[in-house]
Amino acid sequence: EACWYCGCLLEEDITIEHLVPKSKGGVNHADNYVLAHQACNLAAGNMSLKDKIALRLRMLAERETVAPWQK
């Protein structure tokens, strides 16, 4: 499995992330869950879904520009 945000493989630091935070009306349901690294989950914090998608796109774009030996 890969992190929903950065796309890197998940290891021991797997967390279950709510796409729509519970504090913003998100529910505990499989449709609202993704797997993420703990650091990525913390970076997303209490962002709205729109902001989380923007964060994901930025992180994936940054990953594309980093040489494999720098990852």
General description of the model:
By secondary structure, the chain is an alpha+beta fold. It has helices at 38-44, 49-65, and strands spanning 14-18, 33-37. The chain has a two-stranded antiparallel sheet. The longest helix is centred in the last third of the chain and has 17 residues, at 49-65.
Summarize the structure.
By secondary structure, this protein is of the alpha+beta class.
What is the element layout, followed by pairings?
Blueprint: E1 14-18, E2 33-37, H1 38-44, H2 49-65
Beta-strand content: 5-15%
The shape, in one word, is globular
- Pick out the low-confidence regions: none
Distance between the termini: 17 Å
Q: Measured on Cα atoms, how large is the radius of gyration?
A: 12 Å
- The percent of residues in helical segments reads 25-40%
Mean pLDDT: 90
Query: Widest sheet: strand order?
Result: 1-2
SS summary, helix count: 2
* Major sheet attributes: 2 strands, antiparallel
How many distinct beta strands?
2
Class per helix and strand makeup: alpha+beta
Q: List the helices and strands in order.
A: EEHH
Q: Main attributes?
A:
two-stranded antiparallel sheet; alpha+beta; 71 residues; globular
